[in-house]
């Protein structure tokens, strides 16, 4: 059965961030993910994980200046030192949080940049991140993101994710694809076929409904069927619930019950 992780950047936003760990555990989740932990001390987050018996499934490396529109640094010429510092910081947090996977955001393609330069920088940065992750016993993931939600994002296709993993030639299988069903359907479609092609590279999975990015119990994609397919193939990783609830988070969790998310009070 797929293991569902609540994305605390999108879910349980009815309460403050550090209180979302308790809310996720009470709702029946055993794992969590989120965008970034860096506004909080790693020890404070680790204490919440321990207190509520939660596993940290994934978080992102520092993205640069998020408020100014940066969405990662991995492809950006001239920002290599910032990227490498972010790798070190992310791995430090991962150690404290017991997190096996960290996501390296590629960044927004500068319009004036030479595509060959961006690719060369990206590959070098991925190679560095994967080598550092290997030393720490962690895995780096890369995620194709659809151009509707994030225009100009450097890594947009599943095929490019596989290509860059090959070019980076990472040690010990420490560079994987973060396969988001929502982004794949939004930009490419053919999600089940894409999943099959990504299978050897699969490091993490995320879900949301298309369109709307809400609970995966409606829309044009049968997420339940796709999760069953993952299960049948023997996927043992986490599935991040990276969606925006239509209302209160707990009111929209009925879909997750058959995947083992059962509230601590036993109500269904």
TrEMBL record:
EC id: 5.3.1.22
Q: Which SUPFAM superfamilies match?
A: Xylose isomerase-like
UniProt-listed InterPro entries: HPT_OtnI_isomerases (IPR053398), HyI-like (IPR026040), Sugar_Epim/Isomerase (IPR050417), Xyl_isomerase-like_sf (IPR036237), Xyl_isomerase-like_TIM-brl (IPR013022)
Keyword tRNA-binding listed: no
UniProt-recorded Gene Ontology molecular function terms: hydroxypyruvate isomerase activity
Q: Domain Xylose isomerase-like TIM barrel spans what residues?
A: 21-258
**BP GO annotations:** glyoxylate metabolic process
Q: Which UniProt keywords apply?
A: Isomerase, Pyruvate
Annotated active site residues, numbered on this chain, are 143 (proton donor/acceptor), 242 (proton donor/acceptor)
The family assignment reads: Belongs to the hyi family.
In terms of PANTHER family, this protein maps to:
HYDROXYPYRUVATE ISOMERASE, ISOMERASE
Protein's UniProt name: Hydroxypyruvate isomerase
Task: State the organism named in the record.
Answer: Roseospira visakhapatnamensis
């Amino acid at each position: 059965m797929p293991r569902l992780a609540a994305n605390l950047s999108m879910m349980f936003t009815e309460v403050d961030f550090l209180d979302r760990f308790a809310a996720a555990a009470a709702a029946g989740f055993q794992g969590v993910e989120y965008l970034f932990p860096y506004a909080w001390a790693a020890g404070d987050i680790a204490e919440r994980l321990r207190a509520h018996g939660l596993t940290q499934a994934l978080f992102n490396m520092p993205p640069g200046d998020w408020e100014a529109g940066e969405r990662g640094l991995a492809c950006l010429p001239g920002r290599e030192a910032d990227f490498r510092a972010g790798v070190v910081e992310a791995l430090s947090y991962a150690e404290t949080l017991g997190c096996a996977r960290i996501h390296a955001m590629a960044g927004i393609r500068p319009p004036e940049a030479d595509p060959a330069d961006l690719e060369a920088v990206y590959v070098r940065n991925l190679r560095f991140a994967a080598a550092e992750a290997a030393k720490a016993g962690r895995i780096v993931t890369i995620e194709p993101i659809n151009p509707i939600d994030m225009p100009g994002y450097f890594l947009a296709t599943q095929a490019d994710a596989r290509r860059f993993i090959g070019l980076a030639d990472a040690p010990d299988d420490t560079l994987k694809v973060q396969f988001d069903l929502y982004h794949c359907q939004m930009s490419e479609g053919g999600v089940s076929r894409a999943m099959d092609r990504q299978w050897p590279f699969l490091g993490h999975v995320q879900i949301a409904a298309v369109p709307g990015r809400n609970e995966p119990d409606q829309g044009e994609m049968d997420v339940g069927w796709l999760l069953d397919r993952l299960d049948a193939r023997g996927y043992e990783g986490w599935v991040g619930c990276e969606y925006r609830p239509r209302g209160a988070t707990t009111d929209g969790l009925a879909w997750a019950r058959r995947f083992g998310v059962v509230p601590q009070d036993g109500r269904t």
